[in-house]
Specification:
mainly alpha
């Protein structure tokens, strides 16, 4: 995976660089017009926000129950990326909503649960940074709670009546809208994978250095 990082970052940079032209060529949505094109960035960011939360939760479970120390590095990396892509989601969403719905924010189930997930992983990282001894295990428990929120966010639009469209809308998009969407999703996904790998590697190296310092102090 390490050798693929430069390739993924390079491809992602090129694809994101030409994405505005591809998005510009896509047709306008009949009711929302130009502002709908925020969707081509909002959707990939939102999906990767949920993916990061799942990775953080699974890695935390491996650390907490499987006693795999290296999994903790992946959990921290995923949590940080979750905040990055969660921020993109919570910024692009209201920009779109203001034009499409006439308001910046509504407390519908998907928006509220997405904000809750963002706050959970903000608290997770604050705990890991300032919590002291035992914060790794307590943080892992928080990550599991956050992961449990992911399916709720995804299915909420199908269970409750909300302003968000149902999950069945994306697979039925016409080709001239679907191609730009999945093009942007691929670009974001490669960037996500590379950053996740690099950040986890950095965290593993930090943990090894810290272990060496502790061993030296004990000696």
């Amino acid at each position: 995976m390490r050798k693929l990082n430069p390739l993924f970052i390079g491809l992602s940079a090129v694809m994101l660089g030409i994405a505005p032209w591809i998005i510009n060529a896509a047709p306008y949505e009949s009711t929302m017009g130009l502002v709908q094109k925020v969707f081509y960035f909002h959707f990939p960011a939102a999906i990767l926000f949920l993916v990061a939360s799942l990775i953080c939760g699974v890695a935390s479970a491996m650390f907490l129950f499987g006693k795999k120390a290296s999994a903790d590095g992946w959990a921290i990396a995923a949590a940080e990326l979750g905040l990055v892509f969660g921020s993109l989601t919570l910024v692009t969403g209201p920009l779109w909503a203001r034009k499409a719905w006439g308001v910046w924010w509504v407390w519908d189930p998907r928006l509220t649960s997405s904000l809750l997930l963002f706050m959970i992983f903000s608290a997770y990282l604050l705990l890991r940074r300032y919590g002291g001894p035992g914060s790794d295990k307590l943080g892992a428990g928080m990550a599991l709670f956050g992961m449990a929120n992911v399916p709720f966010i995804y299915v909420s639009v199908n269970v409750w009546r909300t302003l968000h469209p149902q999950t069945s809308v994306v697979p039925t998009l016409p080709t001239d809208m679907g191609v730009p969407l999945w093009f942007c999703f691929a670009a974001f996904s490669m960037l996500f994978a590379a950053l996740l790998n690099l950040r986890a590697r950095l965290e593993h190296q930090r943990a090894r250095v810290e272990a060496l310092y502790l061993a030296e102090d004990e000696a």
